[in-house]
Automatic annotation (TrEMBL):
Residues 346-458 form the TMEM62 Ig-like domain. GO terms for molecular function: hydrolase activity. The keyword Iron-sulfur does not apply. Residues 1-21 form the signal peptide. This is Metallo-dependent phosphatase. It holds the Pfam family Ig_TMM62. The chain crosses the membrane at residues 469-496, 536-555, 590-609, 646-665.
């Protein structure tokens, strides 16, 4: 009787735990989605822009261009790349390209300390940033440089007003995001930069995701509805895949607001690793483009974007450095304290008509203008005069001359425009075509640019492969789903097995211990039954599983620079500060949850299954168990080096870790 009662109590207990988990999750994200979750009926307008009679010809009008750089990671301790690349960017690329303005999408500084993976705001890095901008003349040009914070610029920061917020003192914008309109005779172009950093920034490693709460969404919605523009560019440090957009108080999601934007510009992911992030771009279902830019830090890339007759084009350029990343900072040039000598720079070619058809936005751009255009147009940025330009269309040399229709570099608004007459109707067959432009300057340096175009206004595939796929995922939702599925599956499996062995203790798989050979599934179930029949192990594991979804995992000094306010509870749902019990809906906690589930629960359970009921396996697998135990312990120790010793002592994971270490020894060696 007694034996059968205890497991039965687990059923309501499990259901109550799930209910509590549901309630806490909603509390944790209430600042993002509000209490009731309603979705307004979608009303996406899919009208094509009206045809108008503006013809793309050879005149220097209806065109502007600007630049983007991202992820500078100016670092005090890590020399390769970083500041060195940025200094060359300022001394060489900026004067050669001479854009109307520059947008910087975050991670201006690195903020990483030398030891133990610690991180905070380091004043030397901010001084380097400011000095470099000062020496390059950027600070003397109003409305030229627009910078925003990235997650590295808010490591270890209790609030926007904190002393630690060096961005507030040393950046150019100094505010939370920016919003400006470029007013031209031919159109209006809006640039909205949003700061989606955590309102209180923990130190590394749990400060990777951004979020945008209800009041932020309300402000953004207001801005987007406020004024009309030919194009609106939304800028954020985080790609949408790593930014939790909440809802407006009216219940609109980001998808609803995105009807008002043409391009979402971001950084943050650098180029990922192993070539996974070479094409981090995507065309979204609500008809805007999301374009991630690789980093200045290691890859030394920057982007030039042009809007020509309302068609948006861009090109990514790598600094012409002898090695990438540059190992050592360059010596300063005469008259500068840090800016280096200018580098020789081969011509850079940005073809603006025909635009690259992988980035066509027919619901945002007047794409029909390509078909009726009279000239190929390109911007060529060069240090020296251009000697020859050759255009190849589908591999054939274009037979029309190329003329300079730009102006002098000394003019107020420099536009190095080259044009050549063409007949787009020759290419109007509904297929992809290739244009290649080569330019040689008088010093013999050669630049080349190639793109796929179409004249029918349709989009070509981006062929972004895995990069495009990764951009399309919501990484936080993936982490949450993985954790949810794994957790529920294991819980139900253990509970079902426990109830089964309680009511059928004489199951042949359990009783006939040394019976004949078993199939793999039989062996698996036999081991499960034996494992759940060990009460100490079963109940500890089961209560641990319920604990991680209903209790905080640990107490951490999440913001070490803040003596009182920095302490908080680390739940899988987010971080809750002791001060005001305020929630930080930081999706990083899900990353922790998934990793911990895999390596501290799933693999541990598998290890116990392997050694259970089979003496042979015990000695063979003992070493792996020890290695796993030491590794998981070292991870806990490492975390305590960043977020304080409480992470070790006030941590439910530490108790589980100690328990299974002890139990593994008692099973594996002693018995
Ligand atoms: C969509 O919006 C238009 C204009 O704002 C309105 O006339 C129409 O009824 C809306 N459609 C739906 C399905 O709400
Ligand atoms: C624009 O072009 C179309 C077709 O060529 C023509 O019918 C129309 O009259 C033009 N409109 C204006 C305002 O010039
Ligand atoms: C910008 O929008 C206005 C208003 O819709 C339009 O008249 C103008 O032609 C557009 N500019 C360009 C360059 O297309």
């Amino acid at each position: 009787m007694q034996r059968s009662l205890l497991p039965f109590i687990l059923v309501p207990l499990t259901l109550l735990s799930w209910l509590r988990a549901y309630i806490i999750y909603h509390e944790a994200v209430s600042s993002l989605y509000g209490v009731q979750i309603t979705t307004p009926s979608k009303n996406v307008s899919v009208d094509l822009p009206k045809f108008d009679n503006l013809t793309i010809g050879d005149r220097r009008e209806n065109i502007l261009y600007f630049m983007q750089v991202s992820d500078l990671h100016i670092s005090k301790y890590y020399k390769p790349g970083g500041a060195s690349h940025f200094l060359y960017f300022l001394s060489t690329a900026l004067p050669v390209v001479s854009p109307s303005f520059v947008l910087v999408t975050g991670d201006l500084t690195d903020g990483k300390e030398q030891y133990y993976g610690r991180s905070n705001q380091i004043i030397d890095e901010w001084l380097t940033y400011q000095t470099a901008l000062q020496e390059s003349g950027v600070l003397d040009r109003p409305n030229f440089w627009y910078d925003m914070r990235g997650n590295h610029d808010c490591f270890d920061m209790s609030s926007w007003n904190s002393e630690q917020n060096l961005y507030r003192q040393y950046s150019v914008v100094k505010k939370r995001g920016f919003d400006f309109m470029v007013e031209k005779t031919f159109g209006r172009y809006r640039f909205i930069g949003i700061d989606a950093c955590p309102k209180s920034g923990p130190s590394r490693p749990y400060n990777f995701f951004g979020y945008y709460e209800i009041n932020d969404m309300d402000r953004l919605s207001e801005k987007l509805l406020d004024e009309s523009s030919n194009h609106t560019f939304l800028l954020a440090h985080y790609p949408k895949a790593t930014l939790l957009f909440g809802k407006t108080s009216k219940g609109e999601a980001f998808e609803d607001l995105s009807e008002h934007i043409s391009v979402y510009m971001c950084g943050h992911l650098h180029k990922l690793a192993l070539g996974l992030g070479d094409h981090l771009q995507i065309y979204r279902p609500t008809n805007y483009l999301e374009l991630e830019l690789g980093d200045m830090k290691v890859n030394a890339v920057y982007r030039i974007l042009a809007i020509d007759h309302d068609l948006v084009s861009y090109i990514d350029v790598q600094l012409p450095l002898p090695e990438i990343p540059l190992k050592n900072p360059p010596p300063p040039a005469d008259g500068f304290s840090i800016l280096p000598e200018k580098l020789p720079y081969p011509p850079i070619i940005l073809i603006t008509n025909p635009k690259g058809s992988a980035y066509t936005m027919k619901y945002r751009e007047p794409v029909q203008r390509i078909k009726y255009s009279t000239h190929i147009r390109m911007l060529i940025f060069s240090d020296h005069d251009i000697d020859t330009i050759s255009i190849f269309l589908d591999g054939k040399l274009h037979d029309q001359d190329v003329y300079y229709k730009g102006n002098s570099r000394n003019d107020k608004e420099y536009i190095p425009l080259w044009t050549s007459q063409w007949s787009p109707s020759n290419f109007d067959d509904g297929k992809n075509h290739v244009i290649v432009v080569k330019a040689r300057d008088i010093s013999g340096q050669v630049g080349e640019s190639k793109l796929i175009f179409r004249v029918d206004g349709e989009r070509s595939s981006m062929n972004g492969g895995i990069s495009e796929f990764l951009m399309g995922l919501d990484w936080a939702a993936v982490g949450q789903s993985l954790f949810f599925i794994a957790h529920v599956t294991l819980t139900i499996y253990l509970l079902a097995a426990k109830l089964y062995v309680t009511y059928y203790p004489n199951h042949p798989l359990i009783v006939s211990f040394h019976a004949s050979k078993k199939t793999i599934p039989q062996s698996f179930f036999r081991k499960t039954f034996l494992l759940v029949s060990q009460p100490i192990f079963f109940y500890t594991l089961y209560f641990y599983l319920l604990a991680i979804i209903t209790m905080p995992l640990f107490i951490g000094h999440m913001i070490p620079s803040s003596p009182q306010g920095g302490y908080g509870l680390f739940w899988i749902y987010g971080i809750q500060f002791f001060q005001n019990l305020r929630w930080l809906p930081l999706a990083d906690t899900w990353r922790h949850a998934v990793i911990d589930f895999v390596f501290s629960i799933a693999i541990v359970v598998i290890w116990f299954l392997v050694i259970t009921g089979d003496r042979r396996w015990r000695t063979k697998w003992l070493l792996w168990g020890v290695i796993l135990w030491l590794w998981r312990g070292s991870e806990l120790y490492k975390l305590s080096q960043v977020y304080g010793h409480f992470v070790f002592w006030a941590n439910v994971q530490t108790f589980w870790w100690l328990f299974w270490g002890w139990y593994g020894i008692s099973k594996g060696i002693v018995s």
